[in-house]
Fold each of these.
Amino acid sequence: MPQLRQQPRYLQLAQTLINEIEDGRYPIGTLLPTEFDLCDQFGASRFTVREAIKRLVQSGMVSRQAGSARESSGCRDRPPIAR
């Protein structure tokens, strides 16, 4: 029987952040935690956190601002996060 392939960690993290935005933990217009804070919170590498944030930016869920701050935009009509 073939093994089911688990999603990469950055996609799992991206989905977790999407869920937290949609649940109101990071309201629209507020800044997400820093990369370093997210690394500590999720026990993830900086590369993993950056890739997750990149997916959120590409999906329109967050926007980048000067100084690398990320603001929740909470777009509900977004394509699914996929590889």
Amino acid sequence: MSIKKRSRFWLKIAVVLLAVLMVAIVLWKIWPDEEKSQVESSNERAYRHIEVDGKQYDYNTNMLTLLCMGIDTTDDSEGQSDVIDLMVLDRENEKMKILSFSRDSMVPIRIFDASGKSLGWEEQHLALASSYGSTQERGCLLTCEAVSKLIWDIPIVYYAGANLSAFEQFQDLVGSFTVQVPDDSLASLGEEYQKGNTVTITSENAELFVRSRDTDVDFSNTSRMQRQRVYIDGYVQSLRKQLQEDFNGTVTRATGLLSQVVTNISIDEVSDFAKMIMDYEFSAEEDYIVVEGSEKKGLFHDEYHIDETELQKLILETFYTQK
């Protein structure tokens, strides 16, 4: 081969390699990253300054968010989130609020095929977001992403997900406490579970109280969420008492539970959260808010359609100040 022909040959090879490299770079930029370890927002900064009905609002940067998820598995496998509660901590006014989202909420979530390739966003049950993760951590992040998108891309700073294997240990952290049964959804289990009766919650019956439901009854998750509300109220009050009586000891025991939780809360931050829970104003009657919506019988499963007007009011009241 002549020198001239050889030069042309290598020039063609170089052009092909350069084209392949450029395509690879483009694909790398646009291809969904299944393993990202942080929650993304579709419009990262737009939430900071918004306009609603001609009025200007600024995001309250004193707010700290923690999404708590109860995952319906007993091991490290991916599962659905039966509990999706967003804890909002107002560090300026020292107040705590919990926004509770129904697992049956029909909202956009990111879905993936069997190989892990993103298929984009699709309206599905919110509980399913976690099941699309390749790990429980990734499932928690996908749920955070879905909730963030639902509340106008406000970032979820912290998350904590626990499966059923950790339930008893978390109950043991606070010991027993009493609650008033809110409805008759568990009446078939005995007289003590009839509406209005007082029942003592222990590590033996806590899971039954917050998780049980009759799936043959339409919209049974709604009554279960009412039980979860009174449970959270009792749990928070009992945890506060433990912290007030022995703060360091309770924090040490709580830190020991981190290994049972999928979370980005560090060991050093457990004490900070404990202090906020102990000191911040919180009343389940006013501050545990089930996001409003309407129930609908779906083709295969119950559906909960969030009231966008009420959600807008809730977001503005919780996260924003009017200019």
Amino acid sequence: MYGSKTSAYDKSVAAAASVDAAAAQSYFDGRGWDFSEDLLGTYLGNNEASFIYEISTHHYERAMATSGAKMMLVECLEEIKNQARQNPQMGVTRELTSAWLGVQPGDDDDIDNALGHYDVAVSSDITVSESDGGLQAEIIYKTYVYEFYNFDKDSETSPAGVVNNEMRHLEEAGWARSFRVHGEATLQFKKVEKL
């Protein structure tokens, strides 16, 4: 909890953790992981509780290009098609959205270190019509990314687990703050598929 540990001992623990935070930023910088470095810097910037970080188009596109995001995108679109199958409302354009689905870290080290596990969702305008004796859907859709950037207590003794715990100490001391991360596609996409 933010600012919950402010004793002299807690402040000394946070001071030591801030050294490792600077080392982590240097590590990210040395590998060219600008997204990871920026998000950690934002965390250390101790922003307002209501702060929302907007993902740049470049980093958004990289997050959506991971194999995990691509798999969840397919599932999101399938969920929207299932909603349309259940209640086709022929010829009526309506908005259908998917649930937020979790993406596991995978194949982009900068995205993995910046976001870890993150969620994707799809909103769409869908129109169902009859085609060749069956149903067809025109889906115009947009994709979204959401993450809550924070550090949880970790029982791991690996270097990553230790750094994770140290970053959590900074927030508990009131020297850093968790925040929401949001991104969305700048373009809409269109698919026409059989239902």
Amino acid sequence: MDTEKVYTTSLRLYKSRPVHHQAYRYLKEYNKDIFKTKDDFIAEAIVYFAKYLQQEEEVQQMKLLNTLLENQKEQFCKIVKEAVSMAQEEAFEKLGVLEKAVQGELSDGGTIAEDREKEEACMEKDLRFAEFYGAFEE
């Protein structure tokens, strides 16, 4: 055999160790219809187990990430509520300034009432939006 085409290693299994005994038993009873040699069986087993361990590590990382995101959800909801509240306050302030300016220019109160109804409808939407995000905290 050409030594450049072959990896060599040795495997030592101890009779006193239960896992080694079990591994030896599997090596003796491997399925020869699937694997041509013990080398193929061992190589496949090592690759399969390494991929399994990598997958388990990724699952643990995803669980940790989900936990972190779950913990951040409360802070996110709080930030959204504060932002909506601040936007509503600004809108009410602007509404008051706008109403005063319009009252000074117009003598007809019907237009102001219509504008006010439109603004109140918009505020209602904002309040429903805030309630929607508030539902996540419970």
